[in-house]
Amino acid sequence: MTEEIIRTENLTKNFGSLEVLKGISTTIRRGEVVSIIGPSGGGKSTFLRCLNLLEEPSGGKVFFKGQDITDKKLDICKFRQSIGMVFQNFNVFPNMTVLENITLAPVLEKKVPKAQAREEAMALLRRVGLEDKAEEYPRKLSGGQKQRLAIVRALAMQPEVMLFDEPTSALDPEMVKEVLNVIMDLTRSGMTILIVTHEMGFAREVSDRVLFICDGVIKEEGSPDQIFTCPHDPSTIKFLSMVL
Amino acid sequence: MDKIIGLLEKYYPVYLQGLWGTLWISAVTVLLGTVLGVLVAVLRMSRSKALNGIAGAYIEILRGTPILLQLYFFWIGLPKLLPFLELSDTQCIVVALVINASAYIAEIIRAGIGAVDKGQWEAARSIGLTETHLMTHVIMPQAVKNILPALCNEFITTVKGTSLASVFFVGELMTSYRSVQAATFLALESLTIVGIIYFLLNLILSRLLRVLERRMTASD
C-alpha cells in the first residue's frame, strides 16, 4: 500500500442545528486522484474545507500523514503549506501582480530567496501558459487565467496534496477546458488530488476513485467505471440520472 | 463688507491664532484618534469575547452620546479623576476629541476590513500564511482602499468638530469669533470671516485627500 496522505475519521460538521457532515471516514493515498460528486448542499465543499481546517470540524479527526491536525496545539499554517487549495471563485490577490501572488507564501513562510522564488514562479507560469502575464495585475486576467494563476499559486508551495473546490463552476464555458487541462496535466505528474466537481466527464476520465457525497455522508464510492456505469445506491442512481 | 475688511485688518492676528489652534487640535485629534482607533478596532475584532465586548461598548457609548456632552464630561471629569496631572482645559478637550474620534475611526477600520472578500482570508490561509502575514500582506492593503474615503470624511468632520471647543474657550477659530464679537459687537461679520476660513480649510483638505486617495487606489 502507498503512503496515506489524508485520512478522516468520523468527520462531522454542524452549522448551528444544521448537520452538514454526519460522519465521513476515508483515506486518500499518495498519487491518488479522487473526485467528489453529489448534489448541492450535500456537504462536498464542507468536507474539502475541513481537510485544511478552513472549516473547523465539529467532531471526528483529520490526519495529515498520520498526524491529527485538529489538535489545537499544532501550528496549522505549517500543514496548510503542504495542502494546496483552489477555490471556485479563484480568490487571487488583487493587490499583487501575478508573480507576487505566486511568490508571496514561499518567500514569507518558507524563506525561499526572492530570486529563486521568482524563477520557480516563472517556471510554473510557463507550465500553464501565463508567462507573459507575470507583471500584470489579476484584474487584467480572464476567469480561466485567474484560476490557472490560483493553481500555480498553490503549487508554488510544493504541496503534497491539492484540493480543488469546484474549480470550473464560476467559469464561462469556453474557459473550462483550459483549467481542466491544467488539472489533467497535474494528475499525470503524480500529484495527489481531491476534486469536488460537476464535470462528470472529467471526473470519469481522470479519477482513480469517485466519492458520492449526499446528505453529509459518503453514500457510495468506487472506481469511476463502477460509479458511472452501475451505481448501487439509490441516491447515486437518482443523482446521476439527473446530471448525465 | 467694509466692516468685514475692517475687522480683518484690525483683528487678523486673533483669527490667525484661532486658525493655528484649529489646525493643531485637528491634527492631534486625527493622528492620536487614528492610533487609538486602530487599537480599538483590533480589540473589536479579537476572538476574546471580553475584549470584543469592551471595545463594542466603548464604540456604542461614544457614538450614542452627543460630542458636546462628552467634552463637558472630560472637561469636568478628567481634572477630578487625575488631579496630579494638572490638566489644562485645552488638554482635557483634546483628550475628549481624540477619544470621540477613535470610536468613529475604529468603526471605519472594522467596516473596511469586513468588506474585504471572505475568499481572500481563505486563500491566504490555504497557502499557509500566518495570521500576521495574512493581515499585513493580503487584507490590510485591500482594506485601506475601503477605509481611506471614509477616513477622509472623518478628518473633515473632525476639523469642524473642533469648533465645539470654543464652548470651553479653548483657543481655536470659533473662539476667535467669540473674542472679536465680544470686543466689537459685530457678530455676523466675525462669523462670516470664520466661516470662510473653515470653508477654505476644508476645501483644501478635501482636495488634498482626494489626490492622496486616488494615488492609493491606483492599482485598481
Which key terms come to mind for this protein?
heterodimer; A: 244 residues; alpha/beta; 6-stranded mixed β-sheet; 4-stranded antiparallel β-sheet; 10 strands; B: 220 residues; mainly alpha; 0% strand
Topology:
The complex is a heterodimer of chains A (244) and B (220).
Chain A: E1 4-15, E2 18-29, E3 33-37, H1 44-51, E4 59-64, E5 67-68, H2 76-80, E6 83-86, H3 98-109, H4 114-127, H5 143-155, E7 161-165, H6 173-188, E8 192-196, H7 200-206, E9 209-214, E10 217-222, H8 224-229, H9 234-243
Parallel strand pairs in A: 3-8, 3-9, 6-7, 7-8
Antiparallel strand pairs in A: 1-2, 1-4, 4-5, 9-10
Chain B: H1 2-44, H2 49-64, H3 67-81, H4 89-114, H5 118-126, H6 131-161, H7 173-184, H8 187-216
How helical, in percent, are the residues of chain B? over 70%
N→C terminal distance of chain A:
34 Å
Question: What sort of overall outline of chain B do the alpha carbons produce when their principal axes are compared?
Answer: flat
Mean pLDDT of chain B: 91
Q: Please report the distance between the alpha carbons of the first and last residues of chain B.
A: 48 Å
Strand content of chain B: under 5%
The secondary structure category of chain A is alpha/beta
Unreliable runs of chain B, pLDDT <50, ≥5 residues?
none
Q: How many beta-strand elements of chain A?
A: 10
Kindly describe this structure:
The complex is a heterodimer of chains A (244) and B (220). Chain A has nine helices and ten strands. With 244 residues, chain A is an alpha/beta fold. In chain A, helix 3 (98-109) packs across helix 4 (114-127), helix 3 runs parallel beside helix 5 (143-155) and helix 5 runs parallel beside helix 6. Chain A is globular, with a radius of gyration of 18 Å. Chain B is an all-alpha fold and 220 residues long. Chain B starts with a helix and ends with a helix. Classes of the chains: A alpha/beta (244), B mainly alpha (220).
Quick synopsis:
Chain A contains 9 helices and 10 strands. By secondary structure, chain A is an alpha/beta fold.
